[in-house]
């Protein structure tokens, strides 16, 4: 049996110069591949970082802008002639950390619980709730001064001077005239005509009449508006 000759192809031996060229070409291909991978890495992760960073910066800028203009933050109340109270509470609110829908649900839950407690759906009403530019604004309406005090867990009394002051155990708080600064003792205060408000909060207060007498932790800034610092000591406002 005749065997077939297996033909082998002999590679031509490369010169030293040709080997160097081939090694250099291989090195350049490898370097190009590495640079390509590195470029794709930075494009992908750099884009995510920029997006995340800009989103965080946007949130921080919004919150920072709100913090810069915080002169109107805090609680303000408007007392109407019929005794109803409208409370507005403006506070810093970070949308990235908190959910405005959850906030509204919580407020509605507290209002419902208070309505069940008092048996009056009209005791507290949610007028509005909004979140704009890093500030949450909550506005509630209370049917009576007692509802405001009970719902917020604070002291708040309103009525005729004699009717309200005679129910107090602490008679040490004195008031002075907004016009001339003359201070009145308790008996002189009891003889006054008009309406009195007693509270233990820091807030901006507005009433339906002219403010005439205040305790020393109250500053009358307008005819019917005052800034109250009553969180540490009882504040008193008397208006006509």
Walk me through the structure.
This protein is of the alpha+beta class and 240 residues long. It has three domains: 17-68; 70-153, Alpha-Beta Plaits, CATH 3.30.70; 154-240, no CATH class. 38% of the residues lie in helices and 28% in strands. It has five helices and 13 strands. The strands form two sheets. Strands 3-4-2-1-9-12-11 form a seven-stranded mixed beta sheet. Strands 5-8-13-10-6-7 form a six-stranded antiparallel beta sheet. The longest helix is centred in the first third of the chain and has 53 residues, at 16-68. The relative contact order is 0.10. Residues 1-11 and 47-59 have low confidence and may be disordered.
Which properties best describe this structure?
Alpha-Beta Plaits; 38% helix; 240 residues; globular; disordered N terminus; 6-stranded antiparallel β-sheet; 3 domains; 7-stranded mixed β-sheet; alpha+beta
Globular, elongated, flat, extended or rod-shaped: what is the shape? Answer: globular
Count the domains.
3
Ends apart, CA distance between termini: 134 Å
Question: What structural class do helix, strand and pairing data support?
Answer: alpha+beta
Order of helices and strands: HEEHEEHEHEEHEEEEEE
**pLDDT averaged residue by residue:** 81
- Summarize the amount of helix as a percent range: 25-40%
Tally of DSSP helical segments: 5
Could you tell me the number of beta strands? 13
Computed Rg = 37 Å
Strand content: 25-35%
Strand order of the largest sheet: 3-4-2-1-9-12-11
The profile of the biggest β sheet is:
7 strands, mixed
pLDDT under 50 segments (min length 5)?
A: 1-11, 47-59
